[in-house]
Sequence to fold (419 residues):
Amino acid sequence: MRPFEKLTLENSMNAFEYGKTLVPGGVLGIRRPYNFVEGEYPIFVENGKGGQIVDVDGNEYVDFLCAYGPIILGYREQEIDEAVVRQILEKGFCFSLTQQYQNELAEKLRELVPSAEMSIFVKTGSDATTLSIRLARAYTSRTKVMRCGYHGWHDWCVEVKGGIPEKLYEDIYEFQYNDLAALEKLLAEHRDDTAAIIITPFGHPLAKKLQCPRAGFLEGVRKLADEYNVVLIFDEIRTGFRIAMGGAQAYYNVTPDLSCLGKAMANGYAIAAVCGKEEIMKKAESDVFVSSTFFPNSLGYIAALKTIEILQRDHVLEVIWKKGQQFMGRLETILDKYDVGAELSGIGPMFFITFKSDTEKVYRKRRNEFYTQLIRQGIFMQPYHHGYICYRHSEDDLNKSLKAVENSLQIVLDKYGKF
Ligand code: PMP
Fold:
C-alpha cells in the first residue's frame, strides 16, 4: 500500500516558530511536538465539535486525546456551554464571597463517590494531588509519601527535577503499579514516617501499556495502608467520572481515604477536587491553609453540575464502555492480523496502541511510521499517551479510525516486515 501524503501544516509550523519567540519552547509540556511525530502532527488547533477537531491549517481529525482527558461528552457540548454562558450573563462567577454551587457539587460527590464524605474544590489536578498530600501529612504528623503514577507538575512529584531543590522531594518514594511487594518493603523501611500512599487506581504509566489491577492488588494496598496507619489516596484525575460515576474506587470496589478528581468532571472547564473522610478533610478547617483567588470561581462548578447531570441522565458512561469495548475488540482483530509488534491495552473508556520493543530498536521506527500514517489519515492518537473514547465519537468516527489503523499497519508491514 502506498504511504499517505504528508499533511499541509504550514500555519501550525509558522505559529510555532513565532510562538518560540514569545513562549519558551513555543508550547509547553506534553503538547510539545516531540511528544508526537515531529513535523507530522499539527501544533495549533482552531476548533472542535463532538469527537473531532480542526487544526489551524483546516485539517480535520477524529480526536482520541480528548484534551488529555477532560472531554468526556464531546467538544462544544451545547447544554454545558449554555449553562456556563447563562451564568456569565445572568449572575456572574467571580466574587469576594462563595456562591452556593460549592455545596451542591459537594453533595453530588458525596452521593456518587464512595470516599467523598467532604470535598474541597480547586482548579487543577496538581492542586488536588498536592492538597491531598498536605492533608495527609497534617493528619498523620508524618512526612514520607509512597507514590505510583503521574500526579502533576508540582515540586514533590514532577519527573523533571530542574529548578527543584532535592529537599522538596526527598521524602517521596516511587513504586510500580501492581508491585505490592515493593510497596510493602518501602512501608516496612519507613514505618513510622509514612503519611500517605498516593496511587492511580488504574495503571497508566507514561508511554507504556495500560494496566488493570491484578487480582487483590488494590485490596492489598488498602490493607497495607490500614496496617501501617497511612492515609490512602486514589489519584482519580483520569479515572473519575470516566470509568464509573464513582470512579475506579466504585468500579473496583476499594475505597481510599482521600480521592483526587478533575478532568472529566466538568467536560473541559477548570475544576478539580479533593474529597474524602471527614476527619482528614477537617484538617483544612484550621491546620491546613487552602485559598486561591480563582478556586471559588463558579464556572467550573456550573459546568461540573451540568456534566454530571447529563452523565447520569443519559447513562453516558455505559454508552462509552460499550462503544469502547466494541472498538477495542475490532482493533484487536486488526492488530492480530498484522503481525508488526503493535499491541493494544486498556479498558473500554481508555485504550492505547503501543509497540513491542526489540533489541535493535526498530520498534521506534515502526511506531513512528504507524502514527505518521494515522495522522495523515486524520486520526489523532498519540505515540506516548493513551487515547480516550468520548460520548460523541460517532459510529463513523470509529469506523474511519479502524480503517486508518488497518491501512497504517499494512504500510508498517510493507516497510518493516513481520515482527
Ligand atoms: N494526576 C493524574 C493522574 C493526571 O493524569 C494529571 C494530569 N495529566 C494530574 C494528576 C495533574 O493534573 P493537572 O495537569 O490538571 O495539574
